[in-house]
Write a structure and sequence with these properties.
This protein folds into 2 domains: about 260 residues, Zn peptidases (Aminopeptidase), CATH 3.40.630.10; about 130 residues, Alpha-Beta Plaits, CATH 3.30.70.360. The protein is built from 9 helices and 18 strands. The two termini are about 25 Å apart. By secondary structure, the protein is of the alpha+beta class. The structure holds zinc ion. Zinc ion (ZN) binds next to loops.
């Protein structure tokens, strides 16, 4: 292993040791460590903390570090240092990086501390005189809980204008040019509770809810026919992104001999980038009302949360350039796809900043579960992509 590779790995190893699922203590310690590392390679850092304006009770340090070479355009590169909890039985201790067979195991090794290590290593190796863009690195917290006080707050308080954005928190199998929107909702099905020995006196809401679920299956099939202009990632049973609807929770639970008075359904509706959340809420309202009328069932619909997806124009030269770099570094054709899930890109998209996502997260990396790991070759890949993108002429 060369000493350059050792640097990324050493950095990752230290980053993994901070359990950054815990805000109170480790956010501060981990962010200080990152800032120090950036200062060690002669970069200045700024901390943007929502606590300063009273938007958070606790300190949430988001680090901004800039390389200004007087270029015409500025690229933001975003990564996050918070992680999800390390529950369950791990093969190796989750907060101590273990390297085995070309893989490094640890909570956050892939999501997203591997990308922090790869990014800092890239900046360290890069010839700053050859930079094509001014660079603003955004190393933020709170991504795993929605990013409002992380990337969201940081962008709101950033001084400079950003022309393009890259989020390193995604797959190396495609360059992501969009993400799905999400609506979560509740359907409360009302019946009449009673004693199971006298079912004729009650009106079982579980049976009503079952009928609603079957009707919703037709709705699911109908909306799946709508296709986005944006391609779906490899492994999706459709060439392009499409709207999805899933009943994810059913609740009616009292006692074996009790017929409950209500049955609650919860669902997840994924929006393609072309759909707007307000219109889809209306569509759901109409659909659920229609089903209720057809079945003569009282079903009360509530929206629990809603967010739009977004799409970045795949024909932008910035997008094509990045795709070209990934293809040259990997020697493979790389598609431009939208994500089936949501991601932090909407914070940039809302500000009309073209954003793409890439990273080391393969479907096999076990992120958000036990034995999370990153392939060492992917750390190198992300590093080389960043180096070559920021100084195009070296390819
Ligand atoms: Zn992540």
């Amino acid at each position: 292993m060369s000493s350059k590779e050792n640097y990324e790995l050493k950095l990752l190893s230290k980053l993994v040791e901070f359990d950054t699922n815990s805000i109170e203590k480790n956010y501060v310690e981990c962010s200080k460590f990152i800032a120090k590392e950036l200062e060690r390679i002669d970069l200045e850092t700024e901390v943007i903390d929502p606590r300063e304006k009273g938007e958070s009770k606790v300190t949430i340090p988001n680090i901004v570090s800039r390389i200004n070479v007087g270029a015409e355009k500025t690229v933001a590169i975003a990564v996050h240092y918070d992680v999800v909890p390390a529950e369950g039985k791990w093969k190796y201790p989750p907060f101590k990086l273990t390297v085995e067979n070309g893989k490094a195991y640890g909570r956050g090794a892939s999501d997203d501390k591997g990308s922090i290590a790869a990014l800092i290593a890239a900046i360290k190796e890069i010839n700053l005189k050859k930079l094509k863009y001014n660079v603003v690195m955004l190393v933020t917290a709170e991504e795993e809980v929605g990013g409002k006080l992380g990337l969201g707050y940081t962008l709101k308080n950033l001084k400079e204008k950003i022309d393009y954005a890259i989020i390193l928190d995604a797959s190396p199998l495609f360059v992501s040019v969009g993400a799905s929107g999400i609506i979560w909702g509740k359907i409360l099905v009302k019946g009449r509770g009673g004693h199971a020995g006298y079912p004729f006196k009650a009106d079982n809401p579980i049976m009503k809810a079952s009928k609603i679920i079957l009707k919703l299956e037709k709705y699911r099939e109908k909306i799946a026919k709508k296709k986005s202009k944006i391609k779906a990632p490899p492994g999706t049973p459709s060439r392009n992104l499409y709207p999805r609807f899933t009943v994810t929770m059913v609740k009616a639970w009292e006692k074996e001999n009790v017929i409950p008075s209500t049955c609650e359904l919860r669902f997840d509706r994924r929006l393609i980038p072309e759909e707007r959340k307000e219109e889809v809420v209306k569509e759901l309202e109409q659909e659920i009302n229609k089903i209720g009328n057809e079945l003569n069932v009282e079903a009360e619909f509530t929206v629990l949360s809603k967010g739009n997806g977004y799409a970045t124009d795949p024909n932008l030269s910035f997008v094509k350039e990045f795709k070209g770099v990934v293809e040259k570094v990997t020697g493979e054709k790389i598609p431009l796809c939208g994500e089936l899930g949501g991601n932090d890109g909407h914070f940039f998209a809302k500000r009309k900043i073209p954003v793409i996502c890439f990273g080391n997260i393969r479907p096999s990396n076990n992120i958000h579960t036990v034995n999370e790991h990153v392939n060492l070759s992917d750390l190198k890949l992300v590093k080389n992509v960043i180096i070559n993108f920021l100084q195009l002429k070296t390819l």
